[in-house]
Design goal:
Chain A: It comes from Streptomyces albireticuli. Chain A: One of its GO terms (molecular function) is ABC-type maltose transporter activity. Chain A: Its main location: membrane. The structure holds 2 protein chains of 2 kinds. By secondary structure, chain A is an all-alpha fold. Chain A is globular, with a radius of gyration of 23 Å. Chain A has 12 helices and no strands. By secondary structure, chain B is mostly helical. Chain B has one domain (91-324): MetI-like fold (Orthogonal Bundle), CATH 1.10.3720. Helices cover 70% and strands 2% of the residues of chain B. Chain B has helices at 16-56, 84-90, 97-126, 133-145, 148-159, 165-172, 184-212, 216-224, 229-257, 261-266, 278-287, 293-324, and strands at 67-69, 72-74. Chain B has a two-stranded antiparallel sheet. In chain B, helix 1 (16-56) packs across helix 12 (293-324), helix 4 packs across helix 7 (184-212) and helix 9 (229-257) packs antiparallel against helix 12 (293-324). The longest helix of chain B is centred in the first third of the chain and has 41 residues, at 16-56. Chain B is globular and about 75 Å long. Classes of the chains: A mainly alpha, B mainly alpha. The interface between A and B is large, with 103 and 107 residues.
């Protein structure tokens, strides 16, 4: 989104005010470089430790003994791949279902005035405040009665309830920025309201969808509390649960933990960088007009 | 959209039934589109909430709640105890509610304050023509891309007393190792540090968007009038950011108040710890030892009420600021 913003230096003729003294430039770059380093350091450190073999973590400042044994071990001798698959299924399911449900609601709230409109917006906000502590026990009981405990579906719908309100809220803000004339044109051409939404508005709302999809995915991918209680058999663990088994009360396999951490962070990072171009646009549209 | 227009000028006042029918005719489309959300929220949030409220008035725990073992169904035997749970918690008889609440408030305030100021600072720096701007932005957003539980574990490793990288650095400087996660004060500082690291990118990105939505003309006009950079920041930038700030601070407070993973995975899994916030404590009540469902539900409802009060208060303040402007 930065390419079209009026901020680029080329957008206006050079003025004295835009220029910085050399000192200011150095200070600016130093600050940003230091901040970037702080942001980067934990990530690099984990990658570094993961490459140091099983016991390399005990000597965090030495640069010897690089090998891939941690990776081969977790891929070959633990259930990591199963957990990984579980996380993928659950996160993708929650994202697709959540974004679709949130998008229809966001569109309706954005374009139509109907009884219940305001209270729905309020609900979206209030549900954000629900601590999982108040929901987890009743949900545990409900899912138990429906025999959805320890199943993908149970976790997927649970995650939807977490992410849908925020997504609907943000998408509503994003739909607000799309001119209503587009809808009218669609209606004139004989599309149903849902057709308008599906064929015209959704393609235009791609940045907003990217942000909400990203949000849902990351929330589900990194959720700990529900997954820890709901997924009881090792076959159904998600990564967030599985990772805890490496560093428990009795053992501390930090080498394996770091290798797993790297492999977990890579897909999340990939999704992130696909979405990040849209993040600023999507977030502010949702944030300011929510 | 046409549905937004209500039929005006229909002379005879319609009866409630006709009105309901007409309302349905006009709005059924909108309702159909929000139906999935309403169903999801009703089943997964509304009903559990109702049940949570109900449980908080009972003495339900693992032993007396109904369950099915094999083919035998054991009926629930818990009973209503009225406001007993709330009284026990609020009078401070159990659970050290007030000390935990105090720490939760300190935790939330310090985290959100640091998130916001650091995020604002970085956004201001990034919001100017600058070489490597895109690179800086990607690097600074990176902590957001890392799942929180992964990041928390990484920090736990770095904080490790014996083998952690921080103590290794201190060691080379000749300073004795520090027990980052053992001492209760340091524990808290460490937890705040981790959460700040995790939360700054969101604030930065949101504020950056807010900065870009402030019309350039305002800055130029202020400059023409001879405003200093500080004055421009104080009187143009900050007011222009108000809508974004209001939203992100509200969200930040809610999310931090309920931030489970950092505390739970960094410190809170062991025995009773002073650094637990309300949410992690409620979780522990529900799932550790004899599962105290009622007590956990009570805590949950109290947390929710606190946040609701805060949200209403926050919106009031924002509205008043808007009005006085």
């Amino acid at each position: 989104m930065s390419d079209k913003s009026p901020l680029g230096a080329t957008a206006r003729p050079p003025k004295a005010r835009g220029e910085r003294s050399r000192g200011a430039s150095v200070a600016l770059h130093t600050t940003l470089a230091v901040a970037s380093l702080i942001a980067l350091f934990p990530v690099l450190f984990v990658v570094f430790v993961s490459l140091r073999g099983r016991d390399g973590w005990q000597e965090p400042t030495r640069f010897v003994g690089f090998d891939l044994s941690n990776y081969t071990h977790i891929l070959g001798e633990t259930k990591f791949l199963t957990w990984f698959g579980n996380s993928v299924i659950v996160s993708l399911g929650a994202t697709l279902l959540g974004v679709f449900v949130a998008a229809t609601a966001g569109y309706a709230v954005s374009r139509m005035r109907f009884p219940g409109h305001r209270s729905l917006m309020w609900t979206f906000l209030v549900v954000q405040m629900f601590p999982m502590a108040v929901l987890i026990v009743p949900l545990y009981n409900i899912l138990g009665e429906l025999e959805l405990l320890d199943s993908y579906l149970g976790l997927i719908v649970t995650y939807c309830s977490v992410s849908v309100p925020f997504c609907a809220w943000m998408l509503k803000g994003y739909f607000d920025t799309i001119p209503a004339e587009i809808d009218e044109a669609g209606r004139v051409d004989g599309l149903s309201p849902f057709g308008t939404f599906w064929r015209l508005i959704l393609p235009l709302a791609r940045p907003g969808l990217a942000v909400t999809g990203f949000y849902s995915f990351i929330t589900a991918w990194g959720e700990v509390a529900f997954a820890t209680q709901f997924m009881s058999s090792e076959e159904h663990y998600t990564l967030a649960v599985g990772l805890q088994t490496f560093v428990g009360q009795q053992k501390a396999e930090w080498g394996l933990m770091t290798a797993a951490a790297v492999l977990i962070a890579v897909p999340a990072g990939a999704v992130f960088f696909l979405a990040q171009r849209h993040l600023v646009a999507g977030l502010t549209a949702g944030g300011t007009k929510g | 959209m046409t549905t937004a227009v209500s039929e005006t000028g229909s002379p005879p006042p319609p009866g409630p039934l006709t009105r309901a029918k007409r309302s349905f005719d006009t709005h059924w489309y909108a309702w159909a589109m929000v139906l999935p959300v309403v169903v999801v929220l009703a089943v997964l949030v509304g009903y559990p909430l109702g049940r949570g409220v109900y449980l908080s008035f009972t003495d339900a725990n693992e032993a007396n709640v109904g369950r099915t073992i094999g083919v035998n169904h054991i009926a629930a035997t818990y009973k209503s105890v009225g406001l007993d749970n709330y009284w026990k918690v609020l009078s401070g008889q159990e659970g050290h509610f007030y000390s935990r609440l105090g720490w939760t408030v300190v935790w939330t305030t310090s985290c959100v304050l640091l998130h916001y100021t650091i995020g604002l600072g970085l956004a201001l720096l990034l919001n100017r023509p600058l070489r490597f701007r895109a690179l800086y932005r990607v690097l600074l957003i990176l902590p957001w891309a890392v799942p929180a539980f992964v990041a928390t574990f990484s920090w736990r490793l770095m904080f490790n007393e014996k083998y952690g990288v921080f103590n290794a650095f201190l060691n080379t400087l000749g300073i004795d190792p520090v027990d980052w996660l053992g001492d209760s004060t340091l524990q808290k500082v460490s937890a705040v540090a981790v959460n700040v690291w995790l939360g700054v990118p969101f604030m930065m990105v949101a504020i950056l968007g807010g900065l870009q939505s402030i019309p350039k003309e305002l800055h130029e006009a202020a400059e023409m009038d001879g405003a200093t950079p500080w004055q421009r920041f104080r009187h143009v930038t900050l007011p222009g950011l108000r809508p974004v700030s209001g939203t992100v601070i509200l969200l930040g407070v809610i999310w931090t108040f309920n931030m489970f993973q950092v505390i739970y995975l960094l410190i809170g899994q062991g025995a009773s710890s002073e650094s637990e916030i309300l949410v992690t404590y409620a979780y522990r009540l529900a799932f550790q030892g004899v599962r105290d469902y009622a007590g956990s539900a009570t805590y949950g409802i109290l947390i929710l009420s606190l946040l609701l009060v805060f949200a209403v208060f926050h919106r009031r303040t924002l509205a008043r600021q808007e009005a006085t402007r």
